[in-house]
Amino acid sequence: MLRRRLVVGVSIITVLLLLCYLDYHIGPFSKREHRIWLPRGVILVPFYVLCVIFLSREVIRILNAAGLHPLSWTVYLGNILITVNSWLANVIQQWNLEVCKQQISPGGWHWASTASLFALLTISFAVMISFAAEMRRYSHPGGVTINLAGSIFAVSYLGLLSCFMIQLYMAYGVIALLSVVIVTKMSDMGAYFIGKSIGRNKMSPDLSPGKTIEGAIGGILFACIGAWLWFAVAIPQYETKLASSIYGWIIFGVIVAIAGMIGDLAGSLIKRDSRMKDSGHSVPGFGGVLDVFDSLLMASPAAYFLWTFGFVCSASID
Predict the structure, then answer these.
(1) What total of structural domains would you count in the chain?
(2) Pick from 293, 221, 212, 213: which is nearest to 260 by CA?
(3) Separation of alpha carbons 168 and 303, rounded Å
(4) In a structure prediction context, what are the per-residue pLDDT tens digits for the chain, which is 318 residues long?
(5) Cβ partners under 8 Å of residue 63, min gap 6
(6) Which of 139, 172, 205 is the last residue of a domain?
(7) Which residues are CB-neighbours of 172 under 8 A, at least 6 positions away?
(8) How far apart are CA 49 and CA 33, in angstroms?
(9) Are 166 and 87 within 8 A, CB to CB?
(10) 110-128 in b/e burial notation, b at 16+ Cβ within 10 A?
């Protein structure tokens, strides 16, 4: 089991690094001249949309097991729209299209003034779709509210949290994206190995019997090591004009690790409530795609906050 996790984990990291490399070198920030301009994310975002589709399928499966039966197509459509439009809003800003400059709302706000506003509008649209779909299939009282709640939960859990991962990459580049992935997964590995080795005190025995307080502490320590390796060792070799203080990478490691643990426990919460051990069987050694992404979904908003307010680095790397 451990050997399989290591092999699959290394394979996932290798694929991610390859996609990041390709996306960077064919995107708008490549140093090559005389080529067609392509927006950042043209490789990574389609891959992530595919992941969102798998995540939506697994969350629907969990909801069904818990007795909730939202309309599947509303969950798929809502999450895909939120993910894609969150990216497109950033692309529009990068292109600085003339049409964006001309179309001003009565209140004076630019319709694409921020990618965050665009994402919120799409989320609102996804909620309206969920309501409209339930109205369409309504036949008798009972079950509508709970199914509607399941649909909106799936859209908020996956679509809303996914926005931050895309925003992080589009605003600050591949270094920012890899920072949250490396620190979160270092935390996961630290919690797993320390918990297995010396873990004695259960953190939440009813929710996740395998998680221990010792493992959580180990996860935070490993996350700080990962943050130090990335911000203090790797980044200066790649981008000399960006530097992170010791306080910056410690704060980043601790906060992102804690957020990732909350995400991991959140995934366990909905699975246990549905009497499921794993969200699926798509990823050998881990379970489902949600079992890989649950910590990242919660860690991404925390990482985006820290990057945006200058706790780590004060400028975009590209």
Answers:
(1) 2
(2) 293
(3) 8
(4) 556 766 777 788 888 888 888 887 775 544 445 455 677 788 889 999 999 999 999 999 999 999 999 999 999 999 999 999 888 887 877 665 444 444 444 433 343 356 677 778 888 999 999 999 999 988 888 889 999 999 999 999 999 998 899 988 888 888 889 999 999 999 998 888 898 888 888 888 888 888 899 999 999 999 999 999 988 888 777 665 565 677 888 999 999 999 999 999 999 999 988 888 878 778 877 788 998 899 999 999 999 999 888 777 654 444
(5) 69, 70, 150, 153, 154, 274
(6) 172
(7) 307, 313, 316, 317
(8) 29
(9) yes
(10) eebeebeebbeebbeebbe
What is the residue range of 272's domain? 1-38+174-318
The verdict on 220 and 129 lying in the same domain is no
The verdict on 143 and 210 lying in the same domain is: no
Q: Strand 202-204 to strand 208-212: parallel, antiparallel, or no bridges (unpaired)?
A: antiparallel
